[in-house]
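U., I forgot to send this yesterday:
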Amino acid sequence: MFPEYDVIVVGAGHAGCEAAVAAANMGSKVLLATMNMTTIAQMSCNPAMGGVAKGQIVREIDALGGYSGIVTDHTMVQFRMLNLSKGPAMWSPRAQSDRLLFAQKWRQMLEAHSNIDFWQEMVSGLLVKDGRVRGVRTGIGLEIPAKAVVLTNGTFLNGVIHIGEKQFGGGRAGEKAATGITEQLVELGFEAGRMKTGTPPRIDGRSLNWEVMEVQPGDDPAGKFSYTDTPPLKKQLPCHITYTNSAVHDLLRTGFDRSPMFNGRIRGLGPRYCPSIEDKIDRFADKDRHQLFVEPEGWDTCEIYVNGFSSSLPEDVQYKALRKVPGFENMKMFRPGYAIEYDFFPPTQLTASLETRLVKNLFFAGQINGTTGYEEAASQGLMAGINAHLAINEAAPFILKRSEAYIGVLIDDLINKGTKEPYRMFTSRAEYRILLRQDNADLRLTPLVHRLGMQRLEERMQRVEEKQAAAVAIEKLFRQYSVEPEQLNLFLEQSESAPIRQKLKLHGILLRPNISISGLRAVLPDLDDFLKKFPEEYIELAEINMKYEGYMQREQEMVEKMNRLESVHLHEDFDYKQVVSLSAEAREKLSRLKPRTIGQASRISGVSPADISVLLVHVGR
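Result:
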């Protein structure tokens, strides 16, 4: 009934969709298996993409040929660049999406790909022979052969939904859990664990008093995520901000005795940085209010997402407490918030390519690896899809370094340090964040996948080359362009910058605080004429490169030092147990994780600098 597929992707959430597209664009014949075709690329939680560090990841996905940025640009209702008051390493794009259009656009793009087939049914097990995955088995007993399998099961593996004292099986509201895979993987020797996440109530926007809330408009003009020619956003929907208060907190506390968070029914650990509202008022009892973001679900719906009010308290407690929030006095609820527990597999059981150590050509991506967030999941899916294709073609894996991408930081953290709580990306996790900015992801990454042979990248590569050449040309002009005091001193005085007393190069002027290219263009007509031929994106890149050149050089020197450790390879059969100079913890963890390089070994939790020195001696360095 079925041909042998190159790659089967199990699950059609954000990780699964990107995995399918990546493998297909590499040239593999792909089957995307999902329990429900109508929920492909469903935004299970908030209807938004991007944010701090997450926006950088979406840009990196786009630069690597993924579709998340393109889909977001086509379906967003608002765009904001966060952290503009800080340095460019912190600038992070974020978009509110139309939930229904987002899923619809993803499905259209998947169905338009000739290398992707679909199967709607639960996958209940894997076909494994001689330590290698051979395909999947479905709930009705069908066996579908494949050379590689990518598991992206999200929150569906033995998922249990909690609302107060009620609990029932499910992977998402209205959808059943997936069973069978965890049990088989445990039999094969995998370690499994439980995690928890949650979602807020959904509210009828017609019942809210918008006048008493703070308006949060989008940027004007709106930006976008993709480096391709996606359509600009012409109109936007506002978000709003309101706050909880002591009355809200008091009402929420009345349900604590029935909360699965506090009475022990939920054993999985929840996300530290996106806690439930009951967790927030318990942990931060000194705070008399918490911020709530009131976010639209789309253009043509009155459904509202209350970001910041995730809860698994009884529905009557949620209802009463929300009605004490300013603007929510006459609130009507579509459905209550809930928590969900699900199985995950500690990611230290994976190699850097996201292939499992125990079963060849079996890859894990997304929440199955202990992460939280659409963006973290999508990036893993993309990398797993690429590497599944490379594995079946006996090619070297595609592995991003920590100095090359936030995605590299994410995967390196997961496989070396593991995680005991849902892992979320932050800019602070990256050592080289001046190099890993959202504006230069295409320059960093598109050439890498182009060299891999990924299809449909010719236009992207041409644009990368144009952008790089434009930045070089602009920087060259600034280093050559001289200005007289009478040309700039009035402008400098207005900018609270010291006047110049002699002819100076424009490059030195630009390095001053409060001085920008846009300001200089306003007073130097010939500079403005030169720059008019370049897109603003190219000018911004050149400005950042010039202003932060010293910082970038220092980070590049750090990268080169670390790369020296990365160039010292360790054999997979290295017997760490025989190296008595290593600490006991280092021997145990190095034997289990089998790092590829000294650099990777240095990032394993419990391996000390002294242990690294011992290893360097043993490998002759």
